[in-house]
User: Fold this.
Amino acid sequence: MADTVMPLVAAECQRLHDALAPLSEDTWQTLSLCEGWTIRHVIAHVTMPARNGPEEFGAELAAAQFDFGALSNRIADRDSALPVPELLQDLASDILAQWTTPAGGPIGSLSHVVIHGLDVTVPLVWDASRTTRRSASCWTT
Assistant:
């Protein structure tokens, strides 16, 4: 299954990268469909495995008393301060293209990038005042 699904994960990461790369710095502050998170927060969350291996993730999870929601919010807040080019580089990285979710395997990874991709692109499509609407709609089609 991994041989079939992981190329789809890589393709979705690249498609999301290509849709987000032309966005202005201000547009990265657009609210996503994830409550309280901007596009920047969501991409920081999605790309976390490109910056943290299993040991670092385990240590952070333990520090969050194994509360994944609290951990996700803390990492999204912290890593959303990274420069946009770094977040984009992480999104297009081989590490992320090969990463599988701990509980979901390859299908979980594909679901993760597709769902969060929609979380950031749908608000751009529906906000007709944004010039980025066309980029986002290319990703969602």
Notes: The chain has a mean pLDDT of 88.
